[in-house]
Structures are given as structure tokens and as C-alpha cells.
Sequence to fold (266 residues):
Amino acid sequence: MICGLEAVAFRYPGRSANALTDVDLAVAEGTHVALVGPNGAGKSTILRLLTGVLTPDVGKATVLGHAAADWKRRDLARHVAVVSQGGEAEVPITVRELVSMGRHPYLGAWSPLTRGDHATVDACIESVDLTELSACDIRELSGGELQRARLARALAQEPRILLLDEPTAHLDLGHEASFMELVSQYTVKKGVTVVAVTHHLNVSARFADRMVLLASGSVLNEGPPGEVLTPELLEAAFHWPVEVVDLGVLGRHAIAGTRDSGDGPS
Fold:
């Protein structure tokens, strides 16, 4: 296990209910694990525990054999990188400057980038097909281009673990698939472990080795996508009728159904 949770419970201050209750998660090195479930299920809380931003009330959150909260931030950033939905879109910096931030965990307080750092930045920009836009202000980028730049910044950290917190939430279908394809290609090439929080069941089912379905802070089921994407489990999690279609080599796809006209909410 490269990272995970052991019997974790966590409650945010001022809340009456736990965000997570007795959650176990074992992520094997080199795998892609998708955390799925409705809003408030505890998916992003798991990522915050794995980055040490939060500390479990009960149980353990570990990264590379050590408690996540015990890592020094700079040291952890050499092993774990995060791609989220935003944070810097209004900052007047270029794509190259953004990606270069990924080298900061390896530099001294006022040290400039070395020749090797510049080579790493160039390679990461090229890997997400943004070389021609490297001098552009990030405020001029499309949503898909900006997310690729954020991915390049994370890759510049040369992480062993890549955490994705709904990075395709505001992208259209084509950009979403393209982004996840880039993640998949890089992680397979480098053997990087991916833990991805997403609401998009079908795309995650295509790329993930395992899925973890959460609801109300607990794990309903985990396993290969074909075992997790069942109408019974998805309806229990989302409280809505769901049809699952088998598309052969493309895997199983979940489609939200409709209630009968006389049915009320469950």
C-alpha cells in the first residue's frame, strides 16, 4: 500500500455528523483509484487527509508508510502532487511560470531553477501539448488548456502519487476525456499512482483500475468498475434510478433514469 486510510473517522468542527466513519482505503502502487459518490459523501475529505491538511479523529491516514500529517510540506510535495479545479486563474503569470512552480519543492528559498529543472519543465509542458502556449498568460487559456497547465505543474513535481480533486468538473466531454487520457498515458509510462475524486462515473470507469463508492461518509463498495457500477449500488448511493449499460470493450456506463410520474423522492 503506497497510501491509504485505516479505520478513519473524521468530523469537521461545528458539524453534528461525521464526514467519514470507519473508512478503510488501501491504494496499491501504480494503480488508478477513483473515489465516486454523491455530494457530501466524503471524497474530497479523503484527499485532504492524504495530503495532511486534515488529521483523522480516529484511525490513520498514511503516505509511503508515514502518517500524512507528520510529513513536512516540502518533503511531501516531492512525492505527492495535487490537481484541483482552480486557484490561480486570475494571476498574471505565463504557462511556463505556472509549470515551473512544480519545481519549488526541490529548490532552496531563493534558488533559481537549474538547467535540469528547466529541462523538466519543458518536458512536462510538451507532455500536455502546450509548448506553443508556454509564453501565454494563463488568463488567456481555455478551461481545457488551463487544466492541462495545472497537470503539467503537478507532473513537474515528479510525484509518485497524483491526487485529482474533480479536475474535469467544468470541462466538456471532449476536454474531459482528453485530460484523463493524458493522465493515463503519463501514469502508465512513469508508474505513478492516481487517486481521483470525480462525479463522472463513466469516464472514471474507463480509466480507473478500481472504484470506491462512498455515501454519507462510508464506503458502500469497492473493486473493479464492473463490480461497483451496478444499478443497486448506484441507486443506494445517489437515491435515484440508474440504468447500467454494458458497452463491451468500453466497459459499463451508468445512465440516470427517471422516476415514475407517481413516485416521490425517496
Q: What stands out?
A: The chain has two domains: 1-79+160-266, 88-158.
